[in-house]
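sry for the spam today, last one i promise. struct tokens for design, 324 residues
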């Protein structure tokens, strides 16, 4: 089960069918995830005939070729466990939901299935942790998710835009906070924007689980490769995520430790004239200037009427030792 923490981003590399049906290639992706310190790898599983009509022959053949068998999924799962990489899957067809539940502790519901009741009901009965992507959904459809999956502790929503690739101006990342406030569950972000900027903004808005397409080479033919992060992209994002979370810090209740010299910026009190010893201070003898040392600007009335112990100079800070 995926556990989300406030001070760390949980990264999911979506390899989908980028392995092209090769167990060896899928293992290579697990190794790459381990090397890059990606927390989890997500697959897509589904029977070709229930995923797309055979009239869409090219896509049908691609899915037919790329669907890993249960035996291979078991081998891959054990391989990932030994390397400390969490593995789970999106069942893209309702007949594979039970298989996903049998093998994995987390089930991902794709955006396209957010209203597909047959698959949702099967997933709900598994009592597994459920992640739901909200791409191309309506608020009503998102609300309906909570009628099916009633255990909020095992539900994560992912803000997502179902456009491939998504233009940065269409990312609509304000929905991260909106969904959090509306439903009070963990809200993550599933990325289809080129580059890492949208993910960085999502993290700054509170997303602590980020999913991105992952590849070893963006130049490969299938579209998922083109919208994927290569290792160098992820390494950049991971470092940025650490900086972003570090920069968020704590709520301001007083001065922060790094602001130890804040009195240099505050207004203190100075003499407006050269004054002799035993002079009795009047309002006109005092003005305001940085820095604040022994007296703040609002201590002015405390000093008026006091007698000087010694001669003082114009525009010098007023100090306690100046008085009897």
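last one done:
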């Amino acid at each position: 089960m995926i556990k989300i923490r406030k001070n760390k981003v949980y990264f999911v590399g979506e390899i989908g069918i980028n392995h092209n049906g090769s167990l060896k290639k899928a293992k290579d992706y697990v190794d790459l995830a381990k090397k890059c310190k990606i927390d989890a790898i997500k697959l897509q599983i589904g029977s070709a005939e229930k995923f797309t009509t055979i009239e869409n022959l090219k896509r049908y053949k691609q899915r037919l070729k790329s669907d890993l068998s249960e035996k291979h999924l078991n081998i891959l799962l054990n391989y990932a466990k030994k390397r400390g990489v969490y593995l789970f899957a999106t069942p893209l067809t309702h007949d594979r939901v039970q298989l996903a539940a049998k093998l994995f502790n987390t089930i991902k519901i794709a955006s396209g299935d957010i209203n597909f009741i047959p698959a949702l009901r099967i997933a709900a009965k598994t009592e597994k942790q459920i992640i739901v992507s909200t791409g191309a959904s309506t608020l009503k459809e998102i609300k309906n998710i909570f009628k099916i999956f009633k255990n909020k502790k095992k539900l994560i929503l992912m803000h997502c835009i179902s456009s491939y690739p998504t233009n940065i101006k269409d990312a609509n990342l304000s929905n991260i906070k909106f969904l959090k406030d509306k439903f009070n569950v963990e809200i993550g972000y599933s990325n289809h924007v080129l580059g890492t900027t949208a993910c960085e903004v999502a993290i700054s808005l509170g997303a602590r689980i980020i999913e991105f397409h992952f590849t070893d080479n963006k130049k490969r033919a299938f579209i998922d490769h083109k919208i994927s992060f290569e290792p160098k992209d992820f390494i950049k994002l991971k470092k940025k995520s650490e900086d972003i979370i570090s920069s968020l810090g704590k709520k301001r209740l007083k001065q922060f430790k790094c602001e130890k010299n804040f009195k240099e910026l505050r207004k203190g009190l100075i003499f407006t004239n050269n004054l002799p010893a035993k002079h009795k201070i009047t309002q006109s003898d005092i003005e305001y200037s940085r820095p604040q040392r022994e007296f703040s600007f609002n201590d002015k009335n405390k000093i008026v009427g006091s007698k000087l112990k010694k001669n003082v100079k114009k525009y010098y800070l007023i100090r306690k030792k100046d008085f009897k």
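DSSP finds twelve helices and ten strands in the chain. ok im logging off now
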